[in-house]
Amino acid sequence: MPARRKAAAAAAVGLAPLALTALATAPAAAHGSLGDPVSRVSQCYAEGPESPKSDACRAAVAGGGTQALYDWNGIRIGDAGGRHQELIPDGRLCSANNDEFKGLDLARADWPATSVRSGSYTFKYRVTAPHKGTFTIYLTKPGYDPAQPLAWADLDLSHPVATATDPVASGGFYTFSGTLPERSGKQLLYAVWQRSDSPEAFYSCSDVTFGGGSGAVKGSSTPAPSASAPSEEQIEAGTDKSTVEHHGHGDDDAGTSAQPTAQETAQETASLPANDVQAAGSSQSLAETGGDTSTSYLAMGGAATLAAGAAILFGSVRRRAVNQGGRRGR
To answer: Which of 206, 199, 191 shows the shortest CA–CA distance to 298?
Structure first.
């Protein structure tokens, strides 16, 4: 086997554990939140993280800080894999059991709400990094009390009001249809976006009011404020304060993308015949790290790690060959 191929195979074998570790620990890239009906976190972000207008959003900031609002598209569990009820306890659904977003779990009847009616409804999910997956939206059962902590038993899990698999994102939104059943007064929609190219899942709570009004707060004649989504200008203005990282998917941070030279070397490494890799002492292949057409950017990052090591060895082999050739010519 030529020295160059031996070097590439050795790099693939020796660096595979590092690449797999990176795949397991690096944050994923998809991000978003229900935009219509607008989610709690998006609504509060629209009001302004530093000086929210509604009592509920002010309480959310007091309980969890402003960063949660700048990170409005990051309510997630990286290794959910469909285990939503197992990982999220009652009373923590809106935050997905993430302390950064704990202010969104406050049991209050005065969360700003979107006015809806029973019947067909077009849902819009605001996405900042598109990925394949399934959206499922649940509605609370009749008798839901917004002044009590939200529990899984409050949701009609047997009858989701909307489901959509791999919708096409357009204009920053996934748009899909559903049907709202008969309800009255204040209710809540719980959205789960489970990616199919990663175990990562995203969650959001959207407060709604059935019957055409905004719904009066219990114990008060004052109606709950109407909800409104943040504008594109507001979203753009808060980008610099967000800690949510898209890793080159939907953001402008060029540093999160693999360098072209690493990609080129990865392609050369991936093209090695299987017997070359086995001859180096391992049958580990790039395919075993998820290197197919549906591979996420994380897998590509792992391939880039392998490629970087291969490139170093390639250079070493080239220098050794040149030196040896020079000595033979003397």
So the answer is: 199
- Residue pLDDT, tens place only, 169-189: 999 999 999 999 999 999 999
Same domain flag for 38 and 109: yes
CB–CB of 249/292 below 8 Å? Answer: no
Residues 161 and 264 in one domain: no
Q: Which of 182, 217, 241 is the last residue of a domain?
A: 241
Task: Decide: 41 and 69 in contact? Cβ < 8 Å.
Answer: yes
Q: What is the pLDDT of residue 211?
A: 82
pLDDT score of 274 more than 70: no
Q: What is the mean pLDDT of residues 88-102?
A: 97
Cβ atoms 46, 234 nearer than 8 A: yes
Q: Note the Cα 52 to chain centre separation in Å.
A: 25
Q: Calculate the dihedral angle through the C-alpha atoms of 249, 130, 126, 138, rounding to the nearest 10 degrees.
A: -140
Is 295 in the same domain as 198? no
Please state, in angstroms and rounded to a whole number, the distance separating the CA atoms of residues 78 and 87: 11
pTM equals: 0.66
C-alpha 163/C-alpha 285 separation (Å) is 36
The radius of gyration of the chain's CA atoms, rounded to the nearest angstrom, is 25
Residue 99 pLDDT > 60: yes
Domain hosting 299: range is 3-25+255-323
Whether the per-residue pLDDT at 12 is higher than 60: the answer is: no
**Domains in the chain, number:** 2
